[in-house]
Amino acid sequence: MSREPRIRRLVEELSLEEKVRLTHGANDPEGRATGYVAGVDRLGIPPLRMADGPLGVRIPGESATAFPAPIALAASFDVELAREHGEALGRETRGKGQDVLLAPGANLVRVPHNGRNFEYFAEDPVLSASFAGAVVAGIQSRDVVATPKHYVANSQETARAAVDAEIDERPLRELYLPSFRSAVEAGAGSIMTAYNDVNGTRMSDHERLVRDVLKDEWEFGGYVVSDWFGTETVAGAANGGLDVEMPGITLAEMQAAMADDDTADEGGDVPDVIADGMPDAESCERFAAALADAVESGTVSEDRLDDMVTRVLRVMDRVNLLEEGDGRVDGAVDTPAHRDLATRVATRGTVLLENDGVLPLSDDADVAVIGPNVDEPVLGGGGSSETTPVVESDPQTGIAERAEGGVAVAHGLPRVEEVSMLEEFTGGEDDRAEPSREPDLEGAAATAREADVAVVFVRDTASEAIDREDLRLPGRQDELVETVAAENDRTVVVVNSSGPIECPWREEVAAVLENWYPGQAHGEAVAAVLYGDADPGGRLPVTFAPEDAYPTADERRYPGVDGTARYDEGVFVGYRHFDSAEREPTYPFGHGRSYADYEYVDADPDLEDGTVRVTVENTADRDGREVVQVYVRPPSVDGVDRPVRELAGFESGAIPAGERVSVAVDLDDLAFARYGEDGWTVDPGEYVLEIGRSSRDVRTIQRTELDSGFRERVRRSLATGEAASDERAHR
Ligand code: BGC
Asked: For the chain, which domains are there?
């Protein structure tokens, strides 16, 4: 039953000061929430508590399940798993007594260097939107508000708070907006604006994208919250559609609240290395007294303020926060089921990039485990997503527990130090720092020489507020791999990275696994894949290529010149670029090998239904997991550059040895449409459906003409709400 009348009554009873109080952050008296909106006690409105994600629930100084990074989740190509993951995040958020999770990250991976790629899903809008929607639905199902972020075009951390993303409507509509739209459709209660400008306007002030597109077109009924210190104006933001300002307090107050007790007032200056990616900490307290003044002077209407408050109350109500008593579903942290899920996602997201047959390892092989950081799990990258687990498994221990043969360990190099924007920002101590080891490539070589198999773990580092300098592995890790490979021709490389890396040694080694940032279950999960207890279920959600081959290699596009990043590659991001430029990537989008082999027997499109039924046979004598991918090649239209192919749908499923399964793959409307001057269009003509194992490994093709009914249905479903926004623009 709608409780809008009750909310309307509450709004009527609020004083101006109380209304304003509900539109901005304050200090959490318990010192736990990263964002806190004080309630109004006299009317039974409780406070709203926000905690960071998306890798787990982050309460400073506390532990929670440290799940694999979202890019690892997306590599599973399994939307059901994403939903389960969202539910677990929601359950942990409630378990921590919080109401809002600042997750998922819904930005598209445009720049391979982006320091936050690990927090995002993919370079493809259909994949990213499917995951954003599923994670949101999962979080919200636990009476927790999801906050997809950062709306929109926050594609880089370099100068993230200053850069202007100059971007045409077509790439916005076709690539960057769909994940947010999908999150809204899945029921997200809140959306966080990005720090950057889009086409000259700060996102927190962006009337067209926030008010017109998000709220009017997509009918988003929740509240829009700023990123922390991301608000510049009062009336501009409020009238543009921003509803809540965060954190609403000064940097000094926030640092004092976030730091450990003994460093409580030591929050100092932000170091240069991250300053470029930090917002202006003076950008706060816009929605406090200044908002009340603006309402009194009429620059912000009282109706607008009421709408802001209504949105906050409506969302609180949706997660049963306004209930008398406690009608909310229970939460729980670090349950056995969550531990198991963390392991499952880590194995399912692991991508087998190369394998000459060395994998899976035989149980009794003597294994050399080599790498500078094999004694610690890669929990994630730096910044607001840092999560501390209760239990953890590192690669060395995970393999030692699984192996039946001997295990010898060598580090070879000094530890690769993680970068933590957060420690710097809060003035806390980095308790992970340990005395560095001396390089010992010779020792690593000797260990490799004596083993049946050498498994080398290499990693990058990434953090919010800082982009990666290049796509190479930090330090001398490439040299370490080459040294080991020269000693042992059964060398397996496990890469733990935030996104694409260059692998100059790939032809010298026997197998390569991309294992991302796997979280607390690192060792256990990677051992399960190495020994074949689980088939590597992952496929690449981002293209791997040499740095200079990406469209953003042009500095006008990234990091931008004179404060502007020009997105003039248009829709040719990720594999869309590599396909149209006819460049061979190192590993294409969608790529990932299995320990089993598959034959694509047939494919039967039913466009009325929006599905393709694909029959796949596992021809191997071991069970496997296949990800069936369907790409659409659109007809060519004069004067319009279309991508060669676009992902339309995918389905991950287990296929037992020797069996045939029939999988129904749902096709997304987005892959059939393009955005032009007249809005969404679905061109007539022949569409080719490419069905296969990756964007470059097509196993079967179906050609089809779309009938006009189908074309019109797709156009309409994408255009919903456009009319309302046009009307407003013309007023
Ligand atoms: C990040 C957000 C995060 C917020 C609160 C910002 O610096 O960009 O993703 O939710 O801080 O910690």
From this structure: 4-318 (3.20.20.300), 336-544 (3.40.50.1700), 596-730 (2.60.40.10)
